[in-house]
C-alpha cells in the first residue's frame, strides 16, 4: 500500500463514517448509544458526535462509544468468545459513563469483569492502532534480526526462542517471515503515522514509518533478491512456483499479502509465475497483480501467470518453489515427487520458515529459508 492509496482509503473511510452518522441522525428516536466497532481513524467518535449533535431533533439524544474489535482472521469466533480484553471508551460525563455501563452489561453475559477495560474515547481509539502497530513492530524487528542471521550463520528460530523466553518480551509474533500482510497492520501503522504528522510529531511519525513499514518492504525485496542470486542472477523466462497467495493461512484474504509483492518483483524480472493456493481464487490473484499500484502493464502480467488446482502440477518443470503462505497442507506434501518433476538444481525458498530443511536437503533440494544460511 502506497502513501497515496492509504490517504485515498482514509478519505473514503471518513466519508463512510460521516454518511453513517448523518443517516443515524435522520432516523434515530429517543436516547441512542452509537457504538464505533471497526478500526477507525483516531477522533472518529468526535466527528460522529459533532455531526449528530449538530442535527439533533427534539426528544433525541446520543452517546457515542468506542469499542474496537480484536478479531483475527481465521480465529474470529474464538476471539469473540474468549477475548484477551474488551475496550470501551466514552465521554467522561455522567451520561457517557451511563452509556459505558450499558455496553458493559452486554459483554458481561459471557465475559468476566476483569477483562472489560473502560477509558476515555481517545484512549480506546488509540489503543487499537497502538496494539496493531506494536505487533507489526515485533514482526519487523525479528525480520531485521533474520537478515543478520543469514549473514552470520546464526539461526533466527534459535534467536527468537531465546528472546521469547524472556518474560518481559514473550514469544508471540516473533516468527521471522517474508513479511506481514493483511488489512490491519500496515493500515493501522500508517494511520498512526498520519496522526503523528497531524500533531506535528514528525520524529514519532518517522519512527513508526521507517522502522516498521520500511523494514517490512525491505524484507520482501531482500527475499526476492535472494531468489535471484541463487538462481544464477537471472530470472528471465524461469518458472517460479508460488505456494500460497493469502496473507496468512486459514483465510482467502489477500490484502497486502507478501505474495503480491514477491510476485511483483519476480514478474518485473521476467519470470513465469505458477501459483497454487487452496483458498484464493484465480480472479482475485489477477486483480491483485494487475492493480495499477502493483504493475503498470497488466497485459504483460497475464502472459507470465499460470494457475493450478494442486501443488504438483504447479511445480512441474519449475526452477524453484517459493513458500509465501504457511498453509498446513504444505507441511505434508510429497516433496520427493515435487523434486523429481522440477528442473535441476531444484530450489525451495521457504518464506514462512515452516519446512524441515534437513529432510529437503536429503531429497536433493537447494534450500533457502528466512533467517538461516543453509546452502
TrEMBL record:
Role noted for this protein: Involved in the biosynthesis of glycosaminoglycans; hyaluronan, chondroitin sulfate, and heparan sulfate.
Alphabetic keyword roster: NAD, Oxidoreductase
E.C. no: 1.1.1.22
Pfam families linked to this entry: UDPG_MGDP_dh, UDPG_MGDP_dh_C, UDPG_MGDP_dh_N
Pathway listed: Nucleotide-sugar biosynthesis; UDP-alpha-D-glucuronate biosynthesis; UDP-alpha-D-glucuronate from UDP-alpha-D-glucose: step 1/1
UDP-glucose/GDP-mannose dehydrogenase C-terminal domain location: 241-357
Domain of life of the organism encoding this protein: Eukaryota
Catalysed reaction equations from the record: UDP-alpha-D-glucose + 2 NAD(+) + H2O = UDP-alpha-D-glucuronate + 2 NADH + 3 H(+)
Gene: LOC106474991
Full protein name: UDP-glucose 6-dehydrogenase
Protein family per UniProt: Belongs to the UDP-glucose/GDP-mannose dehydrogenase family.
Amino acid at each position: 500500500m502506497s502513501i497515496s492509496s492509504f490517504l485515498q482509503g482514509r478519505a473514503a473511510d471518513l466519508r463512510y463514517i460521516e454518511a453513517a452518522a448523518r443517516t443515524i441522525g435522520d432516523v434515530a428516536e429517543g436516547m441512542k448509544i452509537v457504538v464505533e466497532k471497526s478500526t477507525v481513524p483516531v477522533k472518529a467518535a468526535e466527528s460522529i458526535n459533532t455531526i449528530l449533535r449538530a442535527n439533533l431533533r427534539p426528544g433525541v439524544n446520543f452517546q457515542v462509544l468506542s469499542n474496537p474489535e480484536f478479531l483475527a482472521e481465521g480465529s474470529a469466533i474464538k476471539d469473540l468468545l474468549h477475548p484477551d480484553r474488551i475496550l470501551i471508551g466514552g465521554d467522561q460525563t455522567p451520561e457517557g459513563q451511563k452509556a459505558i455501563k450499558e455496553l458493559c452489561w452486554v459483554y458481561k453475559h459471557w465475559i468476566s469483569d476483569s477483562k472489560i477495560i473502560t477509558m476515555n474515547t481517545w484512549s480506546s481509539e488509540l489503543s487499537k492502532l497502538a496494539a496493531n502497530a506494536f505487533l507489526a513492530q515485533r514482526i519487523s524487528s525479528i525480520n531485521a534480526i533474520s537478515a543478520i542471521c543469514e549473514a552470520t550463520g546464526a539461526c533466527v528460530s534459535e534467536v527468537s526462542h531465546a528472546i521469547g523466553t524472556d518474560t518481559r518480551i514473550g514469544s508471540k509474533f516473533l516468527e521471522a517471515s517474508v513479511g506481514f500482510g493483511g488489512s490491519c497492520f500496515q493500515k493501522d501503522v500508517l494511520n498512526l503515522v498520519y496522526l503523528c504528522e497531524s500533531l506535528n510529531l514528525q520524529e514519532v511519525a518517522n519512527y513508526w514509518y521507517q522502522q516498521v513499514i520500511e523494514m517490512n518492504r525491505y524484507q520482501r525485496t531482500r527475499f526476492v533478491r535472494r531468489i535471484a542470486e541463487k538462481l544464477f542472477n537471472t530470472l528471465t523466462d524461469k518458472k517460479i512456483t508460488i505456494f500460497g497467495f493469502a496473507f496468512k493461512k486459514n483465510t482467502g484474504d489477500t490484502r497486502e499479502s507478501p505474495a503480491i509483492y514477491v510476485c511483483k518483483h519476480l514478474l518485473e524480472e521476467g519470470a513465469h509465475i505458477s501459483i497454487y493456493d487452496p483458498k484464493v481464487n484465480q480472479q482475485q490473484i489477477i486483480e491483485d497483480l494487475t492493480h495499477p499500484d502493483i504493475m503498470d502493464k497488466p497485459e504483460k502480467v497475464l502472459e507470465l501467470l499460470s494457475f493450478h488446482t494442486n501443488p504438483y502440477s504447479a511445480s512441474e518443470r519449475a526452477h524453484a518453489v517459493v513458500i509465501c503462505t504457511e498453509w498446513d497442507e504444505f507441511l505434508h506434501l510429497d516433496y520427493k515427487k515435487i523434486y523429481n518433476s522440477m528442473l535441476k538444481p531444484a530450489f525451495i525458498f521457504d518464506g514462512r520458515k515452516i519446512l524441515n530443511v534437513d529432510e529437503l536437503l536429503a531429497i536433493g533440494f537447494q534450500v533457502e529459508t528466512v533467517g538461516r544460511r543453509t546452502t
